[in-house]
Amino acid sequence: MSASGYGQFCPVAMASEVLATRWTILILRELLCGSRRFNELRRGLPRISPALLSKRLGELEELGLINRRIDVRSGSPGYELTEAGEELRPVIMSLGRWGHRWLESQLSLRNLDPSLLMWDMRRNLNPAPLPSRRITVQFLYHDVTRGQAKWWLIVDKADVENPVDLCMLDPGNEVDLYVVTDLRTMTAIWMGIETVQSALASGRLDLVGAPELQTTMQAWLGLSPFADEPKRVPAGG
């Protein structure tokens, strides 16, 4: 902790000096969500610079919240939470639940990012309702710049280690379902602000392809872990 900290012995102040630095909470969020490699962390935090991410990871390692491990097969480094880091799970999840419950939804929907949305959908997708064969779903955002308008989610239950993959380039597979919408609508569905059915009814979402994938989309689509949290309005809001 820096000498320019709060200068208080209170555990809340001391913990804040560790956790309140820019990006630290979000790096811990990514690790708690299963990211282990540097590039995985970058995909979940697309706006952090590589230099700052390296610095924060070094600080977290020095504080004893993470360990750095070298993969014996690839030779590349990976990161894992220590007992102290894992103990922050309920703290960070509670912070997310509070933000979802009390903060104005429209504020969240100003911060639209297709790469972050698709990465979150990829790691939260539930393969259980999907057929056993390989499934390819293409997302087309008609309001996004060309380079980020098309995405492919590939689900293969036979691949135990990596059942869900995300591609920005056409993988060449036959597409089972096309999802055509705007980024704001898809983000609202992911956040639990609205549903697949309500977006279809309003004409802001169009599904083309296998009927069984269309009818089960709400069940298999990777939603925010806070999507089921009821929204509340602060007094006087």
TrEMBL record:
Q: InterPro entries recorded for this chain?
A: ArsR-like_HTH (IPR011991), HTH_HxlR (IPR002577), SCP2_sterol-bd_dom_sf (IPR036527), WH-like_DNA-bd_sf (IPR036388), WH_DNA-bd_sf (IPR036390)
Tell me which residues make up the HTH hxlR-type domain.
Answer: 10-107
Instruction: Give the Gene3D superfamilies listed for this entry.
Output: Winged helix-like DNA-binding domain superfamily/Winged helix DNA-binding domain
MF terms in GO: DNA binding
Entry annotated with the keyword Nucleotide-binding: no
Q: Which UniProt keywords apply?
A: DNA-binding, Transcription, Transcription regulation
- Superkingdom of the organism of origin: Bacteria
User: PANTHER family, from UniProt?
Assistant: TRANSCRIPTIONAL REGULATOR, MARR FAMILY, TRANSCRIPTIONAL REGULATORY PROTEIN
Instruction: Please give the name of this protein.
Output: Transcriptional regulator
The species this protein was found in: Sediminicurvatus halobius
Lineage of the source organism? Answer: Bacteria, Pseudomonadati, Pseudomonadota, Gammaproteobacteria, Chromatiales
